[in-house]
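Marked as duplicate of an earlier ticket. Keeping the data here for the record.
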Amino acid sequence: MRGPLPEDRSPEPVTVESMTSDLQNLGVEAGQTVLVHGSLSALGWVCGGAPAVVDALKRVVGETGTIVMPTHSPGNRAPTNMSAPPIPESWYDSVREQMPPYRPAVTPAQGMGAIAECFRSYPGVRRSAHPQHSFAAWGADAAFVTDDHAYDFSLGEQSPLARVYDLDGDVLYLGTSHATTTSLHLAEYRADIDLDTVPNASAVLVDGDREWVQWEDIDFDDEDFSDCGMAFEREHPDAFETGSVGVGNAKLLAQRPLVDFGVDWFETNRE
């Protein structure tokens, strides 16, 4: 006799059809711009894995909408900034000389989850040119979102995050939370707070040749993102919807109000 199902497993497999229904019930619609942060493992036993999630998203949003996901590759960085784990100083020159250049079609996403890593290589998906903080997009406004992604201040005004803001897009959490939302980094840039600027470097291709390029960015701090996000929900209960996709918690929220709230919240709560 088969024992009881684990608590995190649906009595039926999670499929493209069931996730399509779940996403529609949550409020995702055709023609929408959605910035997705997803955890495949949180959704339960997904028949087909990450491609099934991407297929469901495409089916719901449709070609008139736009799907966006962060596809960051933080390993392509200066050896002096490598800390997890740190590397010996004697390796620094070799790393600078031998680090493979960022290539949108080849460089894997790191730490972004299986859904984003799968999505970046889907037919018709475009990926921005930033060597550490790229985003991938599919749909009507994919080029608008991903083109002209500046190296300096990579999650600010010349980033895909700002283009999603321009499109009045939404943020979709699939088994994730405010702790993962890159949109609050855009609020960091816009807030009137003191932020240190730090040097960065990555290997890129310039006219087909590998080069080691320098760029600047703020010293990011996401430790208070969960607190900021929860405060946003308390003050703007009409700006988001909650539900489930598979067995995972899901949330759909408007990006503009979240970013605007984050600006004020950071100015008030960060020293």
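See parent ticket for discussion. Residues 18-269 form one domain.
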